[in-house]
Amino acid sequence: MTQVRISRPGATPRARLLVGILAVAVLAGCATPDPLTPTVAGTYTTRPMTNGAQIIPPTNNPPPAGPSPESCGALASLRPGPQPPPGQMPPGGSLAEIASRGRLIVGVDQNTNPFSFRDPTTGTLQGFDIDVAKEITKDIFGDPAKVEFRLLTSAGRFTALEHNDVDVVVHATAITCERAQRVAFSTEYFRAFQRIMVPRGSDITGPADLAGKRVCTFVDTTSLPTVQRVAPEATIVAVPDWDDCLVTMQKRQADATSTSDSLLAGLVSQDPHFQIVGPPMEDEEHWGIGVNKYKDDLVRFVNGTLDRLRADGTWMRLYDRWLAASLGPIAGPPPATYRD
Q1: Strand pairing of 194-199 and 147-151?
Q2: Which residue intervals make up region (Disordered) (predicted)?
């Protein structure tokens, strides 16, 4: 117990009175400690949700699966012609415009570890997609540093291409028949499978266990309707960025997260208290690089770069650097499919 001096020689009656009041207050504080901060009850509403999060209740009418990109020919891209040497783009067309500008403008995001994320130490953008974009830049200019990255939301990436705000989008984008109506795609440069991430020790082991659970996914992605089809009795927490799903899970505001296994692996690498479980939820995803629909010369050039990455081993080196530790070894990159 802390000793409190009640009075001192020469103190006035008023001073002695004030000291006495203080002593009573201190002694009362020692005898009755402040109550502890209330513990979180574990319900979904005890902490504020992520800004922009939407709660989508279970549905009796899940959206039908769209046609596969193979069925509508969306996976078949334009065959590359002879690649001009770096720094010698042909006159006219989008390549000449890019060369004249002196930089390639690439739409990316900064929240998709390990594809495109901001390194916390250097503040620079890094990842598999970032390196692919630099390879395209190197083939145009001979210098991979002549690239300008513009941060886009997933919802805004197609509009940015349509309005020519960016030259290409390298943004973990699945090729679909609907999207191929709006923009052009390169050949497939990555293949993924939608799965589930849960806390270690969770009783969720696959899609059948999602009924009655809260599942986090991205607000504008093919993953959301997939969850609605596979688990219509689940409540969806739709968030603006993939890192928001990690925070939502850490705050126990969702029981699971579902998207491409490659993106889930990036979340797990940030917090090993989570793990990926279950089989693929639907068919595989085919990722492509987005280009404005009317820039055929740029589509062919990008496909020429992707052909080089497959042939000279660069694609495998990038995979080993960024993805092999979390996704495991693979035989090689997905093959190119052309329509001409």
Answers
A1: unpaired
A2: 49-93
Residues 231 and 215 sit within 8 Å (Cβ to Cβ): yes
Q: Are residues 292 and 273 in the same domain?
A: no
Distance CA 136, CA 25 (A): 72
Q: Is 171:305 a contact under the CB 8 Å cutoff? A: no
Q: Which two tokens stand for residue 89?
A: 């783009």
Indicate whether 120 and 224 sit together in one domain: no
Q: Would you give the distance in Å from CA 173 to the centre of its chain? A: 11
Tokens of 88: 């010698």
Write out pLDDT tens, residues 120-174: 899 999 999 999 999 999 999 999 999 999 999 888 999 999 999 999 999 999 9
What is the rounded radius of gyration, in angstroms, for the C-alpha atoms of the chain?
28
- State how far the Cα of 155 lies from the Cα of 282, in Å rounded to an integer: 22
> Nearest to residue 194, comparing CAs of 231, 157, 248?
231
Q: Residue type at 3?
A: Q
CATH number, domain at 305?
Answer: 3.40.190.10
Q: Is residue 154 part of a domain?
A: yes
- Of 257, 301, 249, the C-alpha closest to 82 is 301
